[in-house]
Amino acid sequence: MADKGGLKSRREFLAEGARTAGLIAASMAAGSLVTRRAEATVWQIDPLKCIQCGRCATACVLTPSAVKCLHAHVSCGYCRLCFGLFRDQRSGNETTAENNRCPTDAIRRAFVEDPYFEMTIDEDLCIGCARCVKGCNAFGNGSLFLQIRQDLCARCNQCAIALACPVGAVERVPVSQPYRMKTEVRR
Amino acid sequence: MRRYSEAIWILVGMFPVVPAWAQEQQRQPPPEFRSGYALPPLNAPMPRAEVFTVVDLLVLLAVLSLTAWFLLGARSRAGVRVLAVFSLLYFGFYRLGCVCSIGAVQNVALALVEPGYVLPWSVGLFFLLPLVFALFFGRVFCAAACPLGALQDLVLIRSRRLPAFLEQGLSLIPYLYLGAGLLMAATGTSFLFCQYDPFVGFFRFGGPATVMAFGAALLLLSTVVGRPFCRFLCPYGVLLRACSGVARWRVRIAPSACVQCHLCADACPFGAIRPVTPNADLEPRPVGRRRLAVLILLLPLLVIGFSALGHLASPALARQNRVIALAERVWLEEQGQLWQTTEASEGFWNSGRPPAELYREALAVRRRFGIGATLLGGWFGLVVGGRLILLAMRRRRTEYEADPGACLSCARCYAACPVRGEVSISLPHRVTGETGVTWSR
Amino acid sequence: MEQVERGPLPAHATAEGNRTLPEREIVQAGYLAAVRTAMIAAVFCCVVVVLMAVNTVKSRAYDPLNAPKLLRRQLDLNRDPQNTRLRAEVRRLDREIRTAYFRSRRFAVQGSYLLLGGVVVFLLATEVARALRPSVPLPLSPTVEEVAMAAVQGRRGVATVGVVGAGLLLLLTVLSRNDRAAEYARAAAAGTGQGGQPAVASVEPGRDGRHGNPAPGSSSVGSAGNAVASDRSPAVAAGRVSTQGDTGTGTVLGEPAGAEVRTHGSAEAPATRASTAAGRVEPMPAPLTVLLPAGGEAEWPVFRGGAGFAPGASAPTVWDVKTGRGILWRAVVPLPGRGSPVVWGDQIFLTGADASRRAVYSFSVEKGDLLWQTFLPAPSTPPLKVQAETGYAPATPVTDGRHVCAVFPDGLVVCLSASGRILWTRDLGRPENPFGHAASPVIYADLLIVPLDQGKGEDTAKSRLYALSLTDGRTVWEVARPVPSAWATPLLIRAGDRDLLVLSANPWVIAYDPRTGREQWRARCMAGDVAPSPAVGGGWVFVCNQRAALVAIRPDGTGDVTQTHVGWQFDESLPDIASPVSDGAFVYLALSEGLVICVDARTGKKVWEYETVAPVHASPLILGSTLYVTDTEGTTHLLTTGGAMQLIGKASVGEEVQATPAVARGRLFLRGQKHLFCIGGQ
User: Which residues of A touch B428 (CB under 8 A)?
Assistant: First the structure.
């Protein structure tokens, strides 16, 4: 070992240099990160870009999907024959299985006053398939929209829904403003 | 899995003002309620408050420090295992494996290349902390902080040594995976490490079926082969290996006390303890020297050759990028070669953006791909050529030594040493403890 | 593993040797118990995995998002709404699917927890087993041969990986062959960066040349801008039509990008004749072309394909539905309608509706398969009243290849993508129209132009002309029109240096600038319920209606041109439904009385007439040099165009035909009462 002493101390010296350089670089990086204080991000759907393709329900790594339909009542028309509730082609006017769009019966219609009816969504049943959103946007006021529920979302580094979305409607948003509600988003 | 303890509900839309876009889209007129009906508020739960990210980082710091202590100070495998279980539960099942240090590499790459993406500080620290610890204490992250590693380590029942063919060949894959992942991340195409993470599906209780099947297979393999993902797939391991190569404190076998019984090397499931090399020459020296010379000359050829291949292959790689795929599709539709639209191209045509703008965007990404794929090819050539050279070099070891880059800090070797704990950390030129007592049956 | 303590020797080194016999037996028993527990746990895990796999496979049959059986039953029920048994079955199926879905989800979650528990038990058991009988490492250092082999094998392994990697890269290189980046790089460099509007292309009702070639003497409007190389190059990149003079600049759209402007070779009218000689209005000498959406010259994107004149098109002249000769395919159209088909690419678009259902269909040109159908909600209450002759889907859709737009008699305007997805809808309000609103929309650049003339007699306050953005349906411009209900489809032409949108109604025929909606000229020459749409040719715009006249208007005027730009009038026999068509030399009318009249386009004198006997409601078409007139009994009369009446033949599809046919790629598409026929040559 003694004859290797010289070699070892040289190696040790180089290693020491590398460690120091690494530590300095890391400190600088960490310093710039902390001073910039860039906020963490979460994923969210831009409802104005969404084309209601239905991939939100199937692409999410979680089952059921973390995407749920929300209702901006402020722009709802409160129609009796709600376009989001009823199918295009239906055989009657009752809110029964053969006439409804929602495959899991998550939209409920309740009478408010004549002629207005309130639509609400039971989020436990909603699977985020966007069928109601499609109808509401195509023929109604577009008050139904999809959003990623941040308490359900796993906050993956790469959102599988973002990858699957054909129009890139799922984007990173700052964690302090995690929703793009249709009441706020401007075109 | 709702975490009510963290959710804070926000209320939006308290005031019934119809926003501008809705006024345009308003097909049914806004109702006028006479019965005093109040619009239900639009509320949605907030994500985990950011203060908990600080908690995560502190936990990581604590785990790394404690692992270093257990490994190098107390030399206790039990301590390391307890920490591993804790990390599996906390970083794995509780935090659902995201954001992990392995994935953070991609975020860093994206932030370095893409001006529009700013690296969040927590992600950056998740990337840096294990590397800094590796600089000083070796791969303590792998031992007990990484949930993927912990999972594999816990299911290891009896490890088999792999033949050198597989061992050397497969150990190149992390380098290639790292290069490919950096390319895909820096161009904003996708996060490969996240997409093909084999074990995150178990943490989340769900995931793509193929990836989960691969993860299950890998886990089964982990029962007999030590940590296959860590050794043969993990891209972060490349960085950790580089940093821990110069680690200040490491598992070291004190030469004065070592009886060269080979027990520690056999106990190490990962082959990180290198035995003494035979005294005799394995082959005539000129043969070895010639081979080494050939391989050294081959190295630049490999680098150039693979770089060229990489450059030629860049269009196919680039097509994975969403923007480039869309630009190609839009181009073909515009030329009339495809009359059917996809949802993506429809969305583009409806946005009213001019195709020329899309093409320019795609070309910018293509340029990045061109450079990146060439670099990837060169990197692969360098790795292959470099490893060949390393394997052709004559190594002389007269003592058992633990390769710090390969040591995953699992602390199994301590218990295997019959010389009463003489596998120890040691600062240079210091020999610890009494001489061991040999063991007899 | 036990903690290595300083002091006594490591536990595993002495455990076996130092234990007493009973202790050994206890340890052995414990070890076996632990191993057995581990095996049971492993079996349990396998069972759970298998059960979960079975559950996953079974749940595919109960996927609420993909339930074909339920969908079929629902469609059956829609066709037969009174069927209570069917209704009950649909409800039962739906409930089954939902309960099964939620049950399988719960099962999966519970199974995951069970699996996790099993794995934990397994690991704990193996832990105990290992503690009781630790695996002992072996003091076998490698031999010299093993070390040598290891080096060689190691290098081989690395070389193998290198070769595999090279192979992968080679494969990727091969896949990189048809890379379009260079192509669209040129387009990106050349692109003007203006709005992504499809260019406006034009098709001439000129006399000669094939559909795609500039006619001789076509220089005046810089048509050389884009030579028509292929059928379908929209030439968006060029954007360089040298439009002379002001064509309504600086509006919401910007300049329409250039197009293959082919001129109308009006050889009879010398290019230098002054606009109006004393007392007699001459036809317009400058080029007069019909405007179609970009890339539409080889398609049939709008009602009558523009103005019904397609000199470059060809279609068979012989077919017979009884023998099947010439009939390539026949497809059932589920809902009836009187709108004509339109064609783009491989798709034929149709609308169909009845009182409670309406849909847009897409059929394949090749085989006639129904590619897609998109249903639209039924008209809102009160129920829509339309005349039986109009039906619920009387208007023809219009397409630019990417959008398919349709208008329905209750004022619903819908825009779908070419794959049937609804992009936007507008409800323009139910028009007051005695027969039912039937005018078809047209597309100009990125605007959808929807005429909505309504009212009766003197009540002209409600008539409107809308231009909606194709992208999102918002109103770009709208103008009020001083006319009551009309059923004519607008005509889009380029007259000299102006683009004009000509609408025929009672009493005004008005031409607008399609980009801004500003009125360019108007002529008071119509009367009655105007249903025939304008035609163009020979330097004239032709409008006609029964009880008014066939009027030739020179379209380059401004303001009220009734006295200054109206040429001749022909008022003997006039159509009330079918629109006229002109090849520049003659104008052909098809009457509900069962007559085809040929009028000289220069003089306005009748040249010949032909009796079809059965009424003609479908507008006649000129394909090549053959006039196709289809009567309501489904018989198409084929006549040669020109000054002499010559019947080439007759061919029948055996069904009532009300809609004007469409022609594309040598095939003729006829919509009958129930079927869509594709007639093609062998």
Answer: 8-9, 12
